[in-house]
Amino acid sequence: MSVANETPSPLDRGERAGVRGQAASDASPPPPWHWPLTRALPIALLSVTLVTLGSLLFHPTNYLPADVPDVAFIEALVRWDAGWYGEIANNGYWLKPGEQSPVAFFPLYPLLIRGVAAIGLNRWLAGILVSFFCALGGLLVFFRWARLVAPTHALTAFWLLAVYPFAEYLYGVVYSDALFLLLAVGAFASLERGRHLQAALLGALSTACRPVAPAIVIGLLVRSVELRRTRHLPIRFIDLVPALSGLGLACFMGYLQYRFGDALAFAHVQGAPGWDQEPGWRSWLKLYWFHTMFPKVDPLVGIRLGGHALFTVLGLVLVVPTIKRLGWGYGVYTLLVIGIPAVSSKDFQGLGRYLIAAFPLFLTVAHLVDPRPRLRLLLLVVFGLLLGALAMALGAGGYVS
User: Fold this and answer.
1) Which of 356, 47, 350 is nearest to 173 (CA)?
2) What tens digit of pLDDT does each residue of 241-299 get?
3) Residue 186: CB partners within 8 Å, gap ≥ 6?
4) Angle (deg, nearest 10), helices 360-369 and 319-326
5) Which of 70, 190, 301, 376 is least enclosed, having the fewest CB within 10 Å?
6) Is residue 371 part of a domain?
């Protein structure tokens, strides 16, 4: 299946009426712009409710900073790595050799928390609001992007992402996933509309948010060239502008070099005791994962680590269908945005959540399940049930991701 037939470029707006699948889109008017918001908001509120309920029922003993308000939903959404983001927002970066340090976390999200807190809000409530509204914005932009790339599958793709089992990390949890989703999808959506400078700006912001800059830079560049080649047009200088999206990472590395004399401190600190993810063969070959899982493992640990490994494998398997249906740009981006954390992780922990960043997968899955309505319904129901269960587990203090 050719890319030109499946993912028409916005440059071809005058010719899109002849694209396969467009007739179905033209037969009924597109939903109003706010359609994704009115569907995402109840899901987001339900997720927050379930996280809070888990906290109230199980009274987790996770450490909470002293300034976390004694409000059930705020306490429930401040879990695990949230403490690092709050630390950066409040005290900036510091580095102690051989110890866990905040330099492992990229700066854009905590900077936004600091900015919102500057109007007088508690920093943790600020983080919750940033995540929550970025999630709604990310789902809105995702739906609009999906309608540009494959309009007949956009609705299913939206629901798959909205109820994805690890999507509770989008809905108010003080993590950077929602912000990254908004920026990454926004960058590719801008590129689809021919707005190369806007794509580069959003891409640069996304590489200041998460350590997956090669995925953003290479994915945008390949897609930019791909969009030109679908019309058999020569490559222009503007088509290479998305390469500037690496500036976000470059600025953070420059800051780390200036402040601590180590531009790669965010990678080097991963080997600190407690994280123990120093780059090398032990992490690359997942020896820790095998030693934990075999010959005997605690059932809950086995489900957690086995589940993350399964999601990782499924995500990588879907790279080839993504290339066939959405094009090389999205396939390369998906491969790298999954592959970078998969290679660096010692035990696949967190990879299920990281797949949120691999947003083209949800459109690929929509392609696969839309012709099979029963399978589509079953998948959405299973996703929804898992989302509810994981939200409660997170609120109960579980190390979900």
Assistant:
1) 47
2) 999 999 999 999 999 999 999 999 999 999 898 888 877 888 888 988 999 999 899 99
3) 141, 202
4) 80
5) 70
6) no
Establish if 322 belongs to a structural domain: no
Cα–Cα distances (Å) from 265 to 214, 216, 339, 342, in that order, read 18, 21, 21, 19
Collect all residues with Cβ–Cβ distance below 8 Å to 152 and sequence separation of at least 6.
21, 24, 25, 370
User: The pTM is what?
Assistant: 0.91
Q: How far is CA 289 from CA 92, 243, 313, 330, in A?
A: 33, 35, 14, 29
Longest C-alpha distance within the chain, in Å? 62
Contacts for 219 with CB less than 8 Å, ≥ 6 apart:
188, 329, 330, 332, 333, 334, 336, 337
Classify residue 271: in a domain, yes or no: yes
In contact, 223 and 196? CB cutoff 8 Å: no
Instruction: Kindly report the number of other CB atoms within 10 A of residue 293's CB atom.
Output: 16
Phi, psi (rounded to 5 degrees) for 243: -60, -20
pLDDT of 61 reads 81
Question: How many CB atoms lie under 10 A from the CB of residue 387?
Answer: 22
Peptide bond into 110 cis (omega under 30): no
For 239, list phi and psi in degrees, rounded to 5: -70, -15
Calpha distance 139→189 (Å, rounded): 12
Q: Based on the structure, what is the number of domains in the chain?
A: 1
CB 108 within 8 A of CB 208: yes
Q: Which residues contact 292 (CB under 8 A, 6 or more apart)?
A: 301, 305, 347
Residue 161 lies in domain: 3-11+34-276+387-395
**CB contact at 8 A, 159 and 370:** no
Judge contact between 122 and 170, C-beta under 8 A: no
Residue 58 located in a structural domain: yes
